[in-house]
UniProtKB/TrEMBL annotation:
Residues noted as binding GTP in the record, renumbered to the chain: 108-115, 191-195, 249-252
Organism of derivation: Novosphingobium indicum
Keywords from the UniProt entry: Cytoplasm, GTP-binding, Hydrolase, Nucleotide-binding, Ribonucleoprotein, RNA-binding, Signal recognition particle
Chief localization: membrane
Complex formation: Part of the signal recognition particle protein translocation system, which is composed of SRP and FtsY. SRP is a ribonucleoprotein composed of Ffh and a 4.5S RNA molecule.
Function: Involved in targeting and insertion of nascent membrane proteins into the cytoplasmic membrane. Binds to the hydrophobic signal sequence of the ribosome-nascent chain (RNC) as it emerges from the ribosomes. The SRP-RNC complex is then targeted to the cytoplasmic membrane where it interacts with the SRP receptor FtsY. Interaction with FtsY leads to the transfer of the RNC complex to the Sec translocase for insertion into the membrane, the hydrolysis of GTP by both Ffh and FtsY, and the dissociation of the SRP-FtsY complex into the individual components.
Name of protein: Signal recognition particle protein
């Protein structure tokens, strides 16, 4: 899976990794090769462009963390962008939150692996999630399609709806629903008729089945070996029915990965499963981060950089704690602390943990602080001169107006911030009187 893309990218990063310092030109050269690698992998051109621009901008703009090489950091940036391209940090789960029987409608072109995937997902739901599953084939066009599902059902130990010759797809769907209700089935999978290409009659049939069965999930099965065609098919289907996700089959044979890499960005639809072979258990939940790792094969570097980023946060926090113990607390410190707060995901926590912070907390509450406010405060401090930051007393009316303009805020926002800074530095002085704060650094580091 992804072998040739992996090799290409591996070569690019091997060149970068050993370097102690990276010049802008190094990054640009590397990205030119990444661009070629992605295009050779048959990734859609606009997706490649966006990817390369995003990575280049980040790689050039970012300051390098201590204890990792710039090359390693670029690997991490590329990794993160790949995860994003594949669908983001969260794994798209099947949504089965509805009154049973929850219906999953399978759609796709003939030969894409639809019937096989129907059986694979049924087996997955039965074995991994303990669901009672029923499958029904609505394919009356292809002779023996219903029979094929029946055989697969026997193979994986999942019940199939008995075949009644001559019934139309909507009749079969209605019967399947009734039967699923009677048998207290948790999940009903409807394997709709395949089609050679997107044609109106079959689209209408699919819509009629959808209207009758109100599927919770409508999964489109596409063959990853068809590359950009798979993405185009997904686009034409999503124009007709409300697709909730994609099943990408034959990933086991896909050395390029263009369909997997473009699908989300082009269609907006998440890949939920990857078919990885002919056997009924050859199906995997599509975890973007794991797939990115498989493509880059550099999980070790990625976690190294993550750890380095963590330890920098701890070092910053320790430096801040030291200054606080000395009773020093200027706008730079406040800014750093606001950043810490954002990282820690919330304000209340810090304020509660610190002694002598009641007033500062009240000032925060008065300014109605939420994440947006944190961002605004950061902008305000960013608009101050270095001198004003170390000595906020300099901020007279005229300077306040300048800062407000620079940060796109109002003078009263500046006043609120100054008030908060005053309360906090008072608190810091109290802390100093109380003999400093042991363990504060550890607290910040979390
Ligand atoms: P349908 O016409 O869309 O229902 O396609 P089928 O389910 O009948 O599959 C067509 C062929 O593709 C069969 O021979 C399957 O064994 C094969 N197939 C399906 N999924 C995969 C997969 O993920 N990997 C591989 N290697 N073969 C697959």
């Amino acid at each position: 899976m992804f072998d040739s893309l992996s090799d290409r990218l591996g070569g690019v990063f091997d060149k970068l990794r050993g370097r102690g310092a990276l010049k802008e030109q190094d990054v640009r050269d590397a990205m030119r090769e990444v661009r070629i690698a992605l295009l050779e992998a048959d990734v859609a051109l606009p997706v490649v462009r966006r990817f390369v621009d995003q990575v280049t901008e980040k790689a050039i703009g970012q300051s390098v963390l201590r204890s990792v090489t710039p090359g390693q950091q670029v690997v991490k940036i590329v990794n993160d962008a790949l995860v994003e391209m594949l669908g983001g940090d969260t794994t798209p789960e099947l949504d089965l939150n509805a009154a049973p029987p929850v219906v999953i409608m399978m759609v796709g072109l003939q030969g894409s692996g639809k019937t096989t995937s129907t059986a694979k997902i049924s087996k997955f739901l039965k074995d991994k999630q303990g669901k009672k599953v029923l499958m029904a084939s609505l394919d009356v066009n292809r002779p023996a399609a219903q029979e094929q599902l029946k055989v697969l059902g026997e193979q994986v130990g999942v019940a199939t709806l008995p075949i009644i010759a001559g019934q139309q797809p909507t009749e079969i769907a209605t019967r399947a629903l009734q039967s699923a209700k009677l048998q207290a089935v948790d999940v009903l999978l409807l394997d709709t008729a395949g089609r050679l290409h997107v044609d109106q009659q079959l689209m209408d049939e699919m819509k009629a089945v959808s209207a009758i069965s109100s599927p919770r999930e409508t999964l489109l099965v596409v063959d990853s070996l068809t590359g950009q065609d798979a993405v185009n098919v997904a686009q034409s289907f999503s124009g007709e029915v409300d697709l909730t996700g994609v099943v990408l089959t034959r990933m086991d044979g896909d050395a390029r990965g263009g369909a997997a890499l473009s699908m989300r960005a082009v269609t907006g639809k998440p890949i939920k499963f990857a078919g990885t072979g002919e056997k009924p258990e050859a199906i995997e939940i599509f975890h973007p981060s794991r797939v990115a790792n498989r493509i880059l094969g550099m999980g070790d570097v990625v976690s190294l950089v993550e750890k380095a980023a963590e330890s920098v946060k701890v070092e910053e926090a320790e430096a801040l704690a030291k200054r606080m113990e000395q009773g020093k607390f200027d706008m730079n410190d406040l800014r750093m602390q606001l950043k810490q707060m954002q990282n820690m995901g919330g304000l209340g926590m810090l304020a509660n943990m610190m002694p002598g912070m009641k007033k500062a907390k009240a000032a925060m509450a008065a300014s109605n602080m939420d994440d947006k406010v944190l961002v605004r405060m950061d902008a305000i401090i960013g608009s101050m001169t270095p001198k004003e930051r170390t000595n906020p007393a300099l901020l007279n009316a005229k300077r306040k107006i300048r800062v407000a303009k620079g940060s796109g805020t109002q003078v009263q926002d500046i006043n609120k911030l100054i008030k908060m800074h005053q309360e906090m530095s008072k608190a810091m002085k109290q802390i100093k009187k109380m003999g400093g704060l042991k363990g504060l650094a550890a607290m910040f580091g979390k």
